[in-house]
Target: Alpha-1,4 glucan phosphorylase
Amino acid sequence: MVKKTAPRSQMTSEEFARAVRERLEHMQGVAPSSACVDDVYQAVVAVVRDHLMDSWLATKDMMVHGSTKAVGYLSAEYLLGSQLPNSLLNAGLTDQFEQGVRSLGFDPEQVIEAEHEPGLGNGGLGRLAACYIDSLASLGVPAFGYGIHYQYGIFEQSFDGQGRQVEHPDYWLAGGDPWGHEDLNRSRRVSFGGRVVQEGGRRVWEPAWCVKAVPVDYLVPGYASGRVNTLRLWEARSYDEFDLETFNRSDYLGAVKPQVEAETISKVLYPEDSTLEGKTLRLEQQYFFVAASIADAIATFYPGQDHPDLATLPDRICFQLNDTHPVIGIPELMRVLIDDYGYDWDAAWSITTRTFNYTCHTLLPEALEEWSAELIGSLLPRHLEIIREIDRRFVSDLASRGTGTDQVDRMRIVTAGPDPKVRMAYLATVGGSYVNGVAELHSRLLKEVTLKDFSQVFPDKFMNVTNGVTPRRFVRLANPGLSDLITEGLGTDAWVADLDLLKGLEPLADDPAFVDRFIQVKRQNKEDFAAYSRRRYGFEPDPDTMFDSIVKRLHEYKRQSLKILAVIAQYAAIKDGTADPAGILPRTVIFGAKAAPGYAMAKLTIRLINNVARVIDSDPETRGLLSVFYPRNYNIELAEHLIPATDLDEQISQAGKEASGTSNMKFALNGALTVGTLDGANVEIRERVGAGNFFLFGLEVPEVTRLYEEGYDPRSYYEADRRLKTAVDMVASGVFSDGDRDAYKPLVQDWLNKDYFMTMADFSAYMDIQSTIENAYRDKEGWARKAILNVANSGYFSSDRAVEDYLRQIWHTGPLGQE
Ligand SMILES: *Cc1c(COP(=O)(O)O)cnc(C)c1O
Model:
C-alpha cells in the first residue's frame, strides 16, 4: 500500500487571503475592514468549495463515464459535525487558512467556531453514515450519500430549573447554507396517494399528489485521495408555489397551503432513537428521499436515455440501506422497472435484488420497523401491491424449498390477520443480496436470534462488518496533541490514511520518555477541555481529577441508570464515612445525552442525573472528591472536545443490546481506558487491546438469556447489596428532589419490579471493579501504558477498514481509475 501523507494544496496563504477578500468584496458586498466573523466564515467556505470544485467535477465525470461501480449510501440521517476543519484538512488548506485569515485581521479559531454544525442525525447511526462517506471519498471509491435536507435537525437540548430536558428547534440554516449547493435543474417528482387502475395488461398508478424533490449537494472531499464525492440531500418543495386565485380572494394563508404541506416532508428530523413512531409523515419522508435518489441514480448513469438498459444497473451502482428507513426503495425500484420501463417481474426482481443490500442496526425486536399495510396502501397503493406480490412469491419459494409452514408463517413479509403489517427488515432481507450486522457479536446474534429463520434458509446472505470511525475527524482533528505525538512516534503521518500503522506504537508503551509525553498530552487535553467547558457551560472540571465519561443517547439499555446509581452509592459512602477520604480517587463523572422527547423514562433519568449533580456539587463534604457534570446538548462538537480529555470511558450497556457502539472506538483511539460489558464492539476492542487493558464486568449474553428464562427478580439484588439499597432508597426518599418522594417513582418502581435491562443484577460487579480501576489509575505510568496499548491496537476500528470490508464482501467494487 502506498503511504499517503497529509495533502497540501499548491495555494499559498496570500492567495487564500486574496480569494477571501475578493469573495467578501465582490459577492458579499462587505469590505474586509467592516466584515464580521460570520462574513469571513461565509467567504472562507466559498473559497474552500471553489478550490474543491475541479476535483468534484472530475470525480463525477469519471464516475459516470468510467466502469467502476458506484456506491449509493441511502440513509435517513447524517450526523455530520462541523464541515470547515474537515474540508480544510482534506483539501490541504489548513495552514493557508490560518495564516490567510490572520493576515486579514481575524482569529482562525473564531472563524471555525462560527459554524453551526448540521445535526441531521440522532446519534450513532447518523454518525456512522457520516464516517462512511468520508472513508469512501478517502479511499477514492465513487459514491453518493443520499439523504434528507431537514430544515430542523436534532433538537437543541437545555435543562430547566428542575433539571428536566427542554427541547428547542435546531434552526441550523439560520446563517444560510454555505456548504450546500441547491441544484434546481436536477429536481425529481415524487408522487403519493391515489389509486391503481388496470389498463390493458398493465397496472397503472394514478397518484393524488406530488412534491418536487430538490437536491442540495455537499462536497465530500477525500483525505489524500484527490477525489471529491457528493452528499445529495433532498428538500421537498411544492409545484404550486403559490395560488394567486386564492390569494386574490384574500385567503392569504390558504394560498400558501400546498407549499406548506409539501415542505413539511423535509421539515424536521424525527428525534427517535431506536423505537418507532408510526407516523404517516415519517413514511412520506422515507419514500420521498428514496424515490428521488433512485430516479437520480438512473438519470445520472443513463443520461438522456429514454430506453436505458437497466439490466446493467447493478453494475453501475449498489444501494446500501442504512437500517430499515430506506427499505421502501425495494418496491420502488420494482415499480420503476416494471411500470416505467416495461421490464417483466423476473427481470425486475433480478435487477433489484442485485442492487440492494441491508445493514441491520438493532437486536431489539420492538425496534424493527413495521408499517401497517393500510397506511402503505393509502400513501403508496402501487407499492403495497408489489410488496404483497413479493410476499406471495417468497412464500411459494419457501414452500418449494421445503420450509415448514410454521417457519413460513413466521417469515411472512406481510403478516396475516385483520391489521396486516409490513415488516421492513424482512423485506430488506428478501429483496437484497446481503444483510450485515455491525459487530461480530451482533452479526452472530442476528443469525441466531433476530433473523434466525432467514439465516437458516439463506445462510450465504449474512455478513458482518464491524463499524468504524473516521480517524480524520476523531483523532487528527479532535486530538492534535496526540496526533503530533503519534506522528513523531511512528516517524510518519501516514497513519491518518492507514490506521493499522498505529500498531507501530506498541513498543513505545515501554519507552519511559514516550509514556511521559503521552501523559503530558492527556493532561493538556484535560486542561483544554476544562477551559472550553468554562467558556461554554460555565463549569470548570478539575483536571487533577479522573475524567470519567458516559456520552451517548439516553436509553434504558445503555444504562446511564447504572452509572448514576454507582455515583449515588459513592456519595453515600463519603457521607456516612464508609469511604475513607484519603483512599478516595477524585473523579469528575461527565454525562452527555439527549433523550427522545416522548421517552418518559429516559427523560426522568436526565432529571435525576442533573439533580444528583446539583446535590453533590453543592455539598462541601464531597468537594475535591466527587463531582458530576452534565453539559447540555451532547453533539459532535462536544464529543470532539471531551473524548480526547477522557481518562475512563463507560460502555456499560446490558450484554446483547448494543449492536456495536462507535463511541467506544473513538475513546480507545484517543487513549481512554474502557470499563464495559461484553457487548457490541466492546468484545472486539477488548480482544485487540488485550484483556489486561480493558475493565470488564457484568453478565454476559448467555447469563442474561438464562435470567430472562428463569424469571428475573431485581428486588433480590437490591436486598442483597447494601450499597445498592442505600442508593435506590436515597432516590426514593427525595434526596434528589427536595424531599419529593414521588419525583422518581416510575424509575424506582421500574428498578425494583421490572428492570428489563438488569441494572440491579450488574450493580455489584460494577461497584466491585471500581477499586481495580482506581488502583490502576493511581499508577500513572502504568495507566498511560495501557492507554497507549489501546491506541496502538485500535487501528482496526477505522471506518476505512469498515468500508474496505463492505467493498470486498458486499459491494464488490473499489477505487476509481483502477478498472
Ligand atoms: C459517536 C457518537 C454517538 C454514538 O455513540 P454510542 O456510544 O456509540 O452510542 C452519538 N452521538 C454523538 C454526538 C457521537 O459523536
The two ends are 17 Å apart (CA to CA). The CA atoms of residues 550 and 650 lie 5 Å apart. Residues 123-124, 127, 552-553, 634-636, 639, 661-663, 666 surround pyridoxal-5'-phosphate (CB under 6 Å). The chain has two domains: 13-363+433-438, 471-803.
